[in-house]
Amino acid sequence: MAKYLISFPAAAMVVPEGDWDAVVRDSHAVIEQAKAAGVYVFGGGIDAGVPPVLVAADGRVTDGGYRAPPLDGGFTVLELPSREQAVDWAARLAKACRCSQELRVFGFDPQS
């Protein structure tokens, strides 16, 4: 089985005032379904209050992270037997979060 990353950038979550409680409830319900199905690996959100740093091979730390689009928002990793099932779970999360989800598959590395 492959592990799939289902994610969204913070800017994608445009939720009308007063709807946040429903989004939280609905998204947690999907996660509980994934746990009950035995496919949940882990999930969470990037803490925007903690700025990124780059750590070099010599241990030197530089503020700011890579010069690329920001890595923020939320993510879920599920272990599933097919891409079709991953699309189904991504659609459930999209409905719950009120925004489209990006779906990626992790490459298999037997050493990790």
Automatic annotation (TrEMBL):
<dbReference type="InterPro" id="IPR011008">
    <property type="entry name" value="Dimeric_a/b-barrel"/>
</dbReference>
<protein>
    <submittedName>
        <fullName>Transcription initiation protein</fullName>
    </submittedName>
</protein>
